[in-house]
Write a structure and sequence with these properties.
43% of the residues lie in helices and 18% in strands. It has 325 residues and is of the alpha+beta class. The strands form 3 sheets. The chain has a 5-stranded antiparallel sheet with strand order 2-6-7-1-5. The longest helix is centred in the C-terminal third of the chain and has 35 residues, at 226-260. The protein is globular, with a radius of gyration of 23 Å. It starts with a strand and ends in a 15-residue tail after the last strand.
């Protein structure tokens, strides 16, 4: 069965590529923020809702502005994709899935989306539009098929990543007879109905003292100085390390449970409401329940497993395993 899958790798750009990527990230961020301001002002001031086509036509005129010649120095594909991403953000907002779109910041994660007509892939090397040399990508695993799109990103710790979206044939796991129910918690990230307890590595608590020290040093640095930039980078790298450790634990845990069970039933939690409890918010965030449930969903879909969610108001904690439903 063919599935769309993402393959993410780290790459190490040269000084020239680093400069070109910085220009692309900056232009893509500018176009996104410009289009967001344009659509917002048009609605609140003129009572007119702009579509993707309207912003695309306005971008064509913007690129002809003599005061913004730098918009023509980068590939036009990431700029157009920024408008599509904004249109998707508005669609999700009107559907009630997310909040109103926000402006992108220079200090946050930067990304650029390339369609197949904006990059070259020969099976081993990737070359982006308007670049002479291929990217130095560290391929720790390989994929079959042609990439449908490529996303190049830089995180706050100045690490560069490239993600390939590929449709490939996925090998199905063997069917099993076991089914489990999952109870999420803090002492153990999850406990299953057959008695398995995952434990909780508490990655944030492990590095909390070091993070506190680095943040205190960052707060004392003068804004705009190179020393503040170095201090901010150390904080970002430690946050990235904590996030990587947590994600690694959740991936191994979700893969183990999905491979060993044909059906998984999880509880439905209002995590956002639970985070309002300031005494438990840090512990809940460190567990990564939302990411764990997301991994269960797409891994079950890939391998033809069943996943179900128990109603939030079902009194499962007040019933023993012998009670009839």
């Amino acid at each position: 069965m063919k599935q769309l899958r993402g393959f993410k790798y780290r790459f190490y750009p040269t000084d020239g590529q680093r400069l070109e990527l910085a220009q692309t990230f900056g232009c893509a961020r500018f176009v996104y923020n410009w289009a967001l301001a344009l659509r917002t002002n048009s609605y609140y001031q003129d009572n007119i809702s702009l579509s993707y086509t309207d912003t695309s036509n306005a971008l064509t005129k913007l690129k002809k502005d003599p005061e913004k010649p730098w918009l023509k120095q980068v590939s036009s594909v990431p700029l157009q994709q920024g408008l599509r991403n904004l249109n998707t953000a508005f669609y999700n907002f009107f559907k009630g899935r997310t909040k109103y779109p926000k402006f992108k910041k220079k200090s946050n994660r930067q990304s650029a989306h390339y369609a197949p007509n904006a990059f070259k892939w020969d099976g081993k090397k990737l070359t982006l539009a308007k670049m002479d040399q291929p990217l130095k990508v560290r391929f720790h695993r390989h994929f079959a098929g042609e990439p449908k799109s490529v996303v190049v990103s830089r995180d706050p710790s100045n690490r560069y990543f490239v993600s390939f979206l590929v449709e490939e044939e996925l090998t199905q796991w063997d069917k099993v007879d076991s089914e489990i129910g999952i109870d999420l918690g803090i002492k153990d990230v999850l406990v299953t109905s057959n008695g398995f307890a995952s434990g909780n590595p508490k990655h944030y608590q492990k590095y909390q003292a070091r993070l506190k020290t680095l943040q205190r040093r960052l707060a004392k640095k003068k804004k705009g100085s190179s020393n503040r930039y170095k201090a901010r980078l150390k904080v970002a790298k430690l946050h990235a390390k904590i996030a990587d450790c947590r994600k690694d634990f959740l991936h191994k845990l979700s893969t183990k449970l999905v491979s060993e069970n044909q059906a998984i039933y999880t509880e439905t939690l209002a995590v956002k409401n639970m985070m309002a409890n300031h005494k438990l918010a840090k512990a809940i965030a460190n567990c990564g329940w939302g990411e764990l449930l997301r991994q269960f969903q797409y891994k079950c879909k890939w391998h033809d497993r069943k996943i179900g969610a128990i109603d939030r108001w079902f009194p499962s904690s007040k019933r023993c395993n012998s009670c009839a439903l």
